[in-house]
Write a structure and sequence with these properties.
7-stranded mixed sheet, Rossmann fold, elongated
């Protein structure tokens, strides 16, 4: 290291040069070494005057030099939130991410942790009030908060991690906090402080302040287990093929938090590695609450709307097979805009252990749901099972149009499964879809709004552990 005696002037010149964001990381990694500048009042005053010109860059530099200023931690929270709100998922200043992994600065470590959380478990950063991506709170290590001013969870620091002892998820949203050590008390094993860092001799239980009453009233310790060698093989292959691409555009890695139209083999595998157990578990819960007797004696059509890689259909077939429920399925219709995904769905479905798979007619509608109309179907559908798995909450879906098309396409003996995560947009979209169906007798069959635990491979820790997930699911029939 070449010591720069005039580094304070170098900093101001750097800010005023309006540097390319790709140069921020290397410069801030250098700035971390000049911690003595925290006592240079003239320099700090000058930094403050530069704040308006580039709020995020100035906040990052200030916190790199002085990580103990609460006022500048708040400035970093504000500027980081505004940047993410404007540019996410493209975040050029973190490219390359390697420049930000240096040193032991709390604020910068929080940003790096946030980056990798978005890659390996993006659903853990979805705000349960509005599903905006949460950002580091910066005021307390390991806490994240929603920056949306209109959200009920706005700026509430939320801690989501795993128990040091049993590896189950712990969260300040659902679990009590220890008033003695301030660690979260695991809901499964009851332990709080990680003994590697702290010892707690007298646990004091403080209940969470966040109001998630609706979810907590319907809590499952675990979901109905599924016994499917096919699903297990698909999942293991996806995990082994998971690709971490070190780019600042997180969407390249996490498939747009699961909502992008997939265009590559790596995205196929990444999507399943991140989301398959969660999707299958939610579907199995709603299937378990269902009665398929009306379809045992009639030729049945399965329609998978926004099917992706066919996980909805595969889950249905494998569930029915495991329960020895054999329906005379005549055809399966897959609706999906991604050609590579719909082809993979066909491949996986044909590998299902369901009887007479080779005699089931496969129909592919390679379209966006908003482009679907009556001409895509040969006739009005009867004896049909519709699967809407994690599609109705996608912002681009025109729910009113979908309800209208449903009313025209569907006729008698229609069973519907609508499955989504639990958050405001998903709830309102599912309800709006059902309420928008006209000229049909609607019978509600099941409704689940729950917090549940699944066993899933942690892609960051590279091991299996218990993770909490939420769902808002409804099944109903129409005639």
């Amino acid at each position: 290291m070449v010591f720069d005696k005039k580094f304070s002037s170098t900093v101001i010149s750097f800010i005023r040069s309006n540097p390319d964001e790709s140069n921020w990381g290397a410069f801030i990694a250098e700035a971390i070494k000049y911690t003595f500048l925290r006592s240079n009042s003239d320099f700090l005053d000058e930094l403050e005057t530069e704040y308006q010109s580039n709020p995020l860059l100035v906040s990052l530099i200030y916190n790199a030099i002085n990580q103990n200023s609460q006022n500048w931690q708040k400035n970093l929270l504000k500027s980081f939130g505004e940047y993410i709100d404007k540019y996410y998922p493209t975040i050029n200043f973190l490219n390359p991410i390697g420049n930000w992994r240096r040193g032991n600065n709390r604020q910068l470590k929080a940003i790096v942790s946030w980056f990798y959380k978005q890659i390996h478990s993006p659903e853990n950063l979805d705000c349960e009030g509005c599903e905006n991506v949460m950002i580091p709170s910066f005021l307390k290590t390991g806490r994240y908060c929603c920056f949306n001013e209109n959200c009920e969870f706005h700026l509430i620091p939320i801690y989501d991690n795993h128990c040091h002892s049993c590896l189950e998820d712990v969260s300040s949203k659902y679990d009590a906090e220890c008033g003695n050590c301030s660690w979260i008390i695991c809901g499964k094993c009851g332990k709080c402080a990680d003994p590697r860092y702290e010892t707690c001799k007298s646990q004091i239980r403080v209940e969470p302040k966040i109001n998630l009453k609706q979810i907590r009233e319907h809590t499952f310790d675990s979901v109905p287990s599924f016994n499917s060698k096919l699903i297990e093989n698909i999942y293991n292959y996806a995990i082994n093929s998971f690709q971490v691409i070190h780019k600042s555009n997180i969407e390249d890695i996490n498939c747009g938090r699961g909502k992008d139209v997939i265009t590559s083999e790596s995205q196929l595998n990444n999507y399943l590695a991140m989301y398959l157990p969660m999707h299958v578990s939610k579907l199995y819960q709603i299937f378990t609450d269902s009665n398929f007797n009306d379809f045992k004696e009639v030729n049945t059509t399965v329609i998978d709307w926004g099917c992706g890689q066919g996980i909805g259909t595969i889950s249905l077939l494998e569930y029915l097979h495991s329960k020895e429920i054999y329906l005379p399925i005549k055809r399966i219709i897959l609706i999906e805009p991604s050609k590579i995904a719909i082809n993979k769905a066909n491949e996986y479905i044909m590998e299902s252990g369901y009887p007479n798979m080779d005699k089931i007619e496969m129909i592919f509608i390679n379209k966006d749901i908003n482009d679907i109309s009556t001409i895509d179907f040969e006739h009005v559908m009867t004896n049909c099972i519709n699967i809407f798995s994690n599609i109705l909450d996608v912002e681009s879906i025109d729910i009113a149009l979908l309800s209208n098309n449903y009313s025209k396409i569907m006729s008698q003996n229609i069973l519907n499964f609508c499955v989504c995560p639990y958050y405001s947009n998903a709830i309102s979209n599912i309800d709006a879809f059902i309420n928008g169906i006209e000229d049909r007798e609607i019978k509600m069959l099941s409704s689940i709004n729950s917090l549940f635990t699944i066993k899933q491979h942690d892609l960051y820790m590279k091991k299996l552990r218990g993770m909490r997930r939420t769902q808002y699911s409804k099944s109903f029939s129409t005639n």
